[in-house]
């Protein structure tokens, strides 16, 4: 392979730049030309390619976001869009791809390979940590530390004003961010999509805590929880608590997706970036590079996309035990 392309797609995540840097420098080390594809699949369709040299990725390892920009591409969902993308890659002489993103990005890459035979190796980049085949995805560690910092600060007000706070964190359909923040932030309860926590259970936990002389409480809610969004949950709980507690709601939102990546995310991204280029040049395709028990793994896209990576039930239990 003489020329490869690298792109970021789906939501951005802290550490994506460190992965881009690792991909570019490994390609150059292996004497392969590397181009950046701007704005994910949209840029592939439009032929937005930029040549990348070693200095193109200087001074980015510490930066959040992605220098290649990211997008959710509607056009790539269509055959016509993918055909345009293939033609652009052919015109530019790009023979293989490194895709940094989540399961949607890998689904696109898999379909693209089946239709046009362009080999892709994936790097898991999403704050949600919801991909099977890797213990951690790039961005997760930074996101939970950012959310934790915010939760610690909210706790000050919860304590000063004897309040009950419902704090919503990101994660789409997954509760990884919520469970980590719940444990590390000392929450009374964590509500995640993977396990049903009823309003009744929330009411009971809060009441029991306050009976045992707690004067403030924090409930961490994953955005995809089945009881509704954080405002709906807080309203349902408030109705049951009949004005007993002073309730506030806080949605942390996109602050969780930004900022300088932690050391853990930079190291993970660097390892995955190197391994991804090595795999692509060794003739692999339709795989995601992961890290399991600190060892690099090659996971078929099929598994990364469709297999579940369940939250350990003991973590949910841990929050209950430790909030007594
Ligand atoms: N079934 C599919 N066919 C073609 N492209 C897809 C498919 N699913 C997702 N994609 C592409 O991948 C992009 C990123 O997926 P998305 O789910 O938004 O983020 P993530 O990669 O983080 O899961 C989508 O915007 C779309 O362009
Ligand atoms: O910024 P957007 O496009 O509204 O997306 C929000 C979603 O992106 C995430 O931050 C990351 O998800 P992806 O990695 O799938 O893009 C989710 O936690 C959240 O639900």
From TrEMBL:
State a GO cellular component annotated for this protein: 6-phosphofructokinase complex
GO biological process terms held by the UniProt record: canonical glycolysis; fructose 1,6-bisphosphate metabolic process; fructose 6-phosphate metabolic process
- Tell me which residues bind Mg(2+): 103
UniProt keyword terms in alphabetical order: Allosteric enzyme, ATP-binding, Cytoplasm, Glycolysis, Kinase, Magnesium, Metal-binding, Nucleotide-binding, Transferase
Q: Which cofactor does it need?
A: Mg(2+)
Q: Which biological pathway?
A: Carbohydrate degradation; glycolysis; D-glyceraldehyde 3-phosphate and glycerone phosphate from D-glucose: step 3/4
Q: What is this protein called?
A: ATP-dependent 6-phosphofructokinase
> What is the originating organism of this protein?
Thermonema lapsum
Q: List the taxonomic lineage.
A: Bacteria, Pseudomonadati, Bacteroidota, Cytophagia, Cytophagales
